[in-house]
Design a protein that fits this description.
There is one protein chain. The chain is an alpha/beta fold and 198 residues long. The protein has one domain: Rossmann fold, CATH 3.40.50.300. The protein contains 6 helices and 11 strands. It has a 6-stranded parallel beta sheet with strand order 5-2-6-7-1-8, sandwiched between helices. Helix 2 runs parallel beside helix 3 and helix 3 runs parallel beside helix 4. It is globular, with a radius of gyration of 17 Å.
Length: 198
């Protein structure tokens, strides 16, 4: 039975590497996969999924206004699809996550989504929030903080390596550091207004 999967982690844990390995595994067995990446991620070119270890692959792009159900159904009508893989899934909209659940449920196609849960202020991304709520399987890809603890948060850094505390939620790039929550200083960066009394 096909399922919707959400593989999540902090930054730099190897999500794209894992996705590309999954695609290779399907194709090695003669199966057809569709790979998707958001069109706002242009670090290595539009429509390219790349990993820090040097693997890369072209992919279909999506914007926040695209209907993934309609697009994937058209592809399925051309030729059967065995698996769908989505990189940077945190940038999906709630509607697109629903569209992917319908692809899984109606066409029995497994959908594997890879992304981070929260932004540099500890706030959930829309796509991640709905994937955490609706996915059949949640799989954490672990990475570590500079302290040796498990990293769960994503700190944004400027060009000089200094911590950035405010700004827009989306800033695609490589200037992030995976940290454990204690080192992240959630009470300082979060827009939730609470500071413990003295």
């Amino acid at each position: 039975m096909a399922k919707l999967y959400f593989y999540y982690s902090a930054m730099n844990a190897g999500k794209s590497t894992t996705l590309l390995q999954s695609a290779h595994n399907y194709e090695e067995r003669g199966m057809r996969v569709l790979l998707f990446t958001p069109n706002l991620d242009s670090r290595d070119g539009i429509g390219v999924i790349s990993s820090r270890i040097g693997l890369d692959r072209s992919a279909m792009t999506f914007s926040q206004t695209d209907d993934l159900f309609v697009g994937i159904r058209k592809e399925q009508e051309k030729e059967a699809i065995d698996c769908i893989l989505v990189d940077e899934a945190q940038f999906l909209t709630s509607k697109q996550v629903l569209q992917l659940t319908l692809i899984t449920d109606r066409f029995s196609i497994p959908v594997l989504c890879y992304g981070i849960r929260t932004d540099f202020q500890g706030e959930p991304f829309e796509g991640s929030k709905y994937l955490l709520a609706w996915a059949d399987e949640l799989i954490e890809i672990k990475t570590i903080c500079r302290t040796g603890r498990k990293a769960t948060m994503n700190a944004r850094l400027d060009e000089q390596g200094n911590r950035v505390w405010t700004g827009q939620q989306i800033d695609v790039g490589t200037h992030y550091e995976a940290l454990c929550r204690k080192e992240f200083f959630l009470d300082r960066v979060s827009p939730v207004d609470y500071h413990p009394p003295e």
